[in-house]
Amino acid sequence: MNTRRPLIRRIAAHHVVFDGEVFSPGVVELEDGQVVRYYALKEELPFTEWMEGTIDIVKDVDDRLIALLNGTKKL
Fold it and tell me: What CA–CA distance (Å, rounded) separates 34 from 72?
């Protein structure tokens, strides 16, 4: 039985953009490199990585949501 809990990575940035909507500042939560949640940052969250710039949420070739930092670096 696999009891591994999914590792969620929470990243905040000045801007998070998806489908024309902008969250400033915003948060992206990733599980195994795939975006599972995104939202506006309303309060300080524990265990959050901070990145400068913009995180763009885009669909990959398999239609999964992925996050790109400043348009180039996959998170």
Answer: 16
Whether 37 and 30 have beta carbons less than 8 Å apart is answered as no
Q: What Rg value do the Cα atoms of the chain yield, rounded?
A: 12
Q: Which residues contact 73 (CB under 8 A, 6 or more apart)?
A: none
Q: Which of 44, 36, 42, 43 is nearest to 18 (CA)?
A: 36
Please state, in angstroms and rounded to a whole number, the distance separating the CA atoms of residues 42 and 73. Answer: 25
**Is the distance from CB of 9 to CB of 22 less than 8 angstroms?**
no
Q: Tens-digit pLDDT profile for the chain (75 aa)?
A: 566 777 899 999 999 999 999 999 999 999 999 999 999 999 999 999 999 999 999 999 899 999 999 988 888
pTM of the model: 0.86
